Amino acid sequence: QVARLGGDVVSVKDFGAVGDGVTDDTGAFVNAYNLVASKGGGKILVPQQPVGGFYLIDPLVITADNVEIHHESRTTHVKLKPQDFSVLSNTGVYQPRGSSGNLLHGFKCFSGKLDGNKGNHINEVANAHLDHEVIDLKYCKDAVVEGCVVINAHSEGIDLDSSIGTTVIDNEIDFTVTGNNFAKKAILDFGTYTEDNHQLLL
Tens of pLDDT along 60-112? Predict the structure, then answer.
């Protein structure tokens, strides 16, 4: 995925991300995103974490156009911090968000091992009916999710709502959890849609 990078690139490491599986790296991801957003879009690099580690973050909400997240490889591990499911819904690692009157343009996510941390959230069982997707796109246009490994989802691994021109391709998605771990209904919602993904059986 690094080969895709050209032009200005912001690394989460530049903002202090550690990736040791203990440190809260949310601030580093948010600051990298804020810088890219202030420039009208750009590329965020998530480098490979130290051996045995992962990046631990709260949901990253993306509302700026043309933001690309490039993970160094499919084993670059980003895990959702434990959330309180009685307070939050639609919580995932990445949450690109437009609105019905203002679609979010050009979000792209390449590679990475994205982890919903199923089974480790507060009030998770009592709120099992709520949607908590790992990659949760809403009101997006021309988005791309490619080459990701999506594991430990509470509901869908990748969810696509009210978007157009979206490509989701070459991802590995953990289907071992109960329920539909990929939003098949998205096929009906999109003008352009590519489905070429396969199950990751753990």
Answer: 999 999 999 999 999 999 999 998 877 766 678 999 999 989 999 999 999 99
Which pair of structure tokens corresponds to residue 106? 């050009």
The SS3 assignment for 27 reads helix
Q: How many CA atoms lie within 13 A of 174 on its CB side?
A: 21
What are the beta bridge partners of residue 182?
158
Distance CA 92, CA 155 (A): 10
DSSP code of 122?
B
For residue 80 the two structure tokens come to 């959702």
Question: What token pair was written down for 27?
Answer: 């601030």
Task: With a cut of 60, say whether residue 162 has pLDDT above it.
Answer: yes
Q: Indicate the helix (H) or strand (E) that contains 32.
A: helix 26-38
| 128/89 Cα distance (integer angstroms) | 10
How many whole angstroms separate alpha carbon 80 and alpha carbon 27? Answer: 13
